[in-house]
């Protein structure tokens, strides 16, 4: 099994960059850099954690999963090939664009591009947030989490837990939704897999979560969203399973950004897997 330490970065194809640049920088507090067809978002000392590309339709372009060393990356490549999976070595241009030392990639369930890498570039210049915030919770916990709709949620869960070191956190089953939450470090979940419910289609990218270091960061962003009349998917609330206090911004491209504080962390030595029948303890109502 390949030991994945974190979700290091994510790339998303989007249909609109201008509004996204404003939301990421002025509301969320990321440091954004933009060229004509691409936007980088930085949230810590690394070169970037998120990249967004102008495209005809929205999709998750790739997710970057970190391994602990170059030797581990080479061993992962050998293991995946032995299992009969098609693995491709990154080109020099891809390594430069991702700002990593080395990288391989393969197709996961629903053709999601999975990139395994080592050696994320640390910038010499300090992180400059887009607005005054306490900072983002990253480090060994990684970027945050992504949520995907799966054509076969159980098969996708087996793929990530059998090939990689993802472990089960818990489940939430409510209304027509079935969601499985997976962790690879103490962050409650790095990856969540859902059935194609609420109008989603298999392989659809639902949302990306960014965690900040203060509840006040969330509250001030929530005020800004109301003042600027930025659309929301869900109002402020607290989740049942990871107990994150958060709200969801609706981007013009169609995916959501969850912006939250205070998620619980998993200790595998005594973690109890639970099944919840609702996503929220309070709040998190669907926005009109």
TrEMBL record:
InterPro entries: Glyas_Bleomycin-R_OHBP_Dase (IPR029068), Glyas_Fos-R_dOase_dom (IPR004360), VOC_core (IPR037523)
Ranges where the VOC domain occurs: 6-119, 142-262
Residue ranges that the Swiss-Prot or TrEMBL entry lists as coiled coil: none
Name this protein carries in UniProt: Biphenyl 2,3-dioxygenase
Organism in which the protein naturally occurs: Aromatoleum toluolicum
